[in-house]
User: What shape does this take?
Amino acid sequence: MESWPGVIERYGALIDLPPEAPPITLLEGGTPLVPAPRLAAELGADALYVKFEGLNPSGSFKDRGMTVAVSEALHRGARAIVCASTGNTAASAAAYAARAGVSCLVLVPQGKVAAGKLAGAIAYGAQVVQVEGSFDDALRLVREVSQRAPLALVNSINPYRLEGQKTAAFEICDALGRAPDWLALPVGNAGNITAYWMGFRLYHDQRRTGLPRLLGVQAAGAAPLVLGHAVDHPETVATAIRIGRPARGEQALEAAEESDGCIISVPDEAILAAQRDLAGEGLWVEPASAAGLAGMRAQVQAGRLSLRGKSVVCVCTGHGLKDPDIITSSFPAPRLIPPTMAALRDLLGL
Ligand code: AN7
Assistant: This one.
C-alpha cells in the first residue's frame, strides 16, 4: 500500500490552493476512523465511529488547515505567520512554520492553555506571548497586527484553513463509502464545523455521497451560539473551546441548520464523563474533543433524538496528551513502594 501523502497531495483537486504553491506538509490527515461498538450500543446507534484527529502530526485537526494556509502564505511571499490560539492552533502553526523555515508568533490567553499545547508551540520554536485576557482578546490583537505588519494570519478566518480542514469530511465519506447519518463535533471558534459542512456539501454536489446531520457542541460556560449572544468571560474545563466570540459563528449556525442538525451546549461534567468513556475504549482525547460524544449522549438521554439504525461519527479533535494535567490533577498520585517483592505483595494483598 502506498504511504499517505498528506491532505494537499491526496485531495489537491478539491482544495482551492494555487496549484503552483509548493506544499508545506507534515503528511497530516489520513487519521483512523475507529469503531466504538460499546458506545454505539449505549446510544442505541447502528454504529459509532471516532475520527481520531489527535493522531495528526502536532496532535490535533488544526494541521489539516495549517498545511494549506501556510503553503498559500509562503506562496504569496510571507516570511512570518501569526495566530491567536487556545493552544492547538498555536502548536500547529508553530510546527508548519518550522517546516517552512519561517517565523511564527502566537498569542494565547494567560494561564488557560493546556501544558502539551504550550510546550509544543515552544518546542517548534514559535514566539509565544500570553495576553492578559481571553482568546477573543488575543484574536482581536492578531487581526489588527496582521494588517500593520508583514505577518500572515493563520486563524480560521483565513479561508485556506477551511480548505484544508474540509478534507476530514472527505476521509470519513471515503472510509464509510457514504456520509454518516450524524456528525458530532466540538465548536469553539466555529471554523471546523463550517469546514466539515463545506466538505460534505462538495462530495454531495459531486454526487458521491449524501449529507449528514451536524451536531455542534459547545461547553455550557462558553456557549455563545446557543445563547445567541457573545460571552464576555467564557469558562470551561475544555480550554480549547473557551471562546466567547466565535469568528465563524454565523456560518456554523447556517451549517447546522442546513443539515437539519443543531448546536447545543453541555456542562463540563458531561464533557469529562465522555472523556473518561472514550479513554475506556482506548481513545484518550483532550476534554474539548469529548464534547461531540457528550452532546450526542445528552440528545439521546433527553429523548430528543433516536439513533436506531443510524450511524454516528464523533470527531475527536485533539489528543489526550495535550492536557495531562486535567487527568493527573483529578487522581491521587500513584502509590510509591520500595523496590521489594514484599512491598509489592503487601500492596496487592497477595
Ligand atoms: C481540540 O487552537 O480555537 O470550532 O485556537 O483545539 O474550529 O474553533 C481550538 C479549537 C475543538 C474547536 N477541539 O474548533 C485554537 C482553537 C479542539 C480545539 C476546537 C478546538 P473550532
